Amino acid sequence: xxxxxxxxxxxxLRDLAKxxxxxxxxxxxxxxxxxxxxxxxxxxxPDAVQFSADWKSSLSPALRHAVTFLHQAATDLARNADExxxxxxxxxxxxxxxxxxxxxxxxxxxxxxxxxxxxxxxQIQQWWAGLTPAxxxxxIRDYPVEAGNTNGIPFAARVxxxxxxxxxxxxxxxxxxPEPVLNPLxxxxxxxxxxxxxxxxxxxxxxxxxxxxxxxxxxxxxxxYDPARNSIVEMIGTxxxxxxxxxxxxxxxxxxxxxxxxxxxxxxxxxxxxxxxxGGSVAFVYKGSEFPDGGLIEAFAxxxxxxxxxxxSSPVLAEFQxxxxxxxxxxxxxxxxxxxxxxxxxxxxxxxxAHYDRVIALSGAALPPGWSxxxxxxxxxxxxxxxxxxxxxxxxxxxxxxxxxxxxxxHLYEPPGxxxxxxxxxxxxxxxxxxAGPENETALRDVRKEIYG
Length: 453
Hints:
The protein is an alpha/beta fold. The chain has helices at 10-40, 46-92, 121-129, 133-142, 144-149, 155-172, 191-216, 257-261, 267-275, 296-303, 307-326, 341-351, 387-393, 427-432, 441-452, and strands at 221-226, 231-236, 245-250, 281-287, 333-339, 358-362, 378-383, 408-412.
C-alpha cells in the first residue's frame, strides 16, 4: 500500500466478526420462526404437503447452511484478528511477556477456537487451566460463543461468556418494537390470523428481552447459550467445592428457548435447590440440542418416538454431563431427572457413557434401544394416570417404559381431587407431575425424600 501498511485493521476485523455473529443469530431466530409457521399453518391439501416437503428437504437446510457459514466466518475473522495482532506485536517487539505461559497457548500467541479442535472435555479443562487469567479473559471477550458453550471450560467462565452472548442477542432485537395494533381499515379474510401471529411473535420478543436482561444483570445464569444450535442450559444455584447434589433436569417434547422465558422448565429444579436445607444443591436445566418440535403430530408421533432422533441428541447430553463430572466435588451425588421425552434423552445419554447416581422419571417416555440399567444407579418413576402412560400400556409408543421396567421403583399417584373417567387420557396430569405447585406436593415430597433423605 502507498502508506507502507501491510495487513489488516484488527479492530475492523473484530467488529466485522461481531456483526457476522449477530447476523447468524438473527437468521437462526428467523429460521425458528419460519419452522413454527410452516408447521402451524392452517393449509390443508397436496400443495401444502409438497411445500412442507420442499421446506424440510431444501429450503430449511439452505438457511441452516447460511447460519453455519456466518458463524464460521465470524470465528475465522476473529482468529485472523488474533493472528494479525500477534504478528504485529512480534514484528515490533511488543509481544506480551505473559502470553503463552503454561500449556494453554504457545509463546507469542493468544488462545483461539482452533485450540479446542479434537480435544475432549478433560483436555479442554487442562488447556484452560494452562492459560493466564489475561488469556482467559481475552478468550471470553473475543470468542464468547465458544467460551460459553464448550464442555471443559469451567462453568463460571461459561456463565460470564453467556452474559456477553445474551447482550449480543439483545442488540439484535429491533430498537423500536411497539405492540402490534389491529387496523380495521386493512381487514381481509386472513387479517385476524396474521394479527394473532404478529402479536404472538411480539410477545415472545418482549419475554425474551426480559429474560436476557436477567442474564446480562446476573440474575439468571446460563451454562450454555447458542441459539444457532438450539442450545440453552440454565444453571440454578452455585457450583463449587461445597456442592453436595448436582441435578441435571431434562424437560420434555416441544421445549424450546421461549419455554425458559416463563420459568416452566426451571420449576422443579428451583424447588429442589431451594428445598435443600444444606444449601449444597445446584441444578442444570438442560436443552443442549434440538428437541422434538413442530406441529403436534410431528413432535409427538414422529420425532419423540424416533430412535434416530434420540440417537442424535443423547450424545450431546452425555458430553455435557462429562463436563459436569469434571467439576463435581468428591462425594457429591449426581441426579438425572427427565420429564416425558426428557427421560428418553437422559437414559440415551447413559448409552453414551454418562453416569448418574440417581435417575428419576417424571411421566417418562419409553427407554431407547440398547438401554440397560447401570448397576451403580438407583432408578425411580413418578407419574399420574395420563395419556402417555395409557399409550405406553397399549404398546403404541414403546414397550420398554419406566412404569413397566423392573429396574425402576414405581410410584403412581391419584390426581388431585380424585380419579375422574378421563384421567387415563389426561394431558394435564402429564404436565402436573413436572410442576412445583401445591397440587403436586405428594409427589414432590417423595422426590425430595429420595434425593435428600
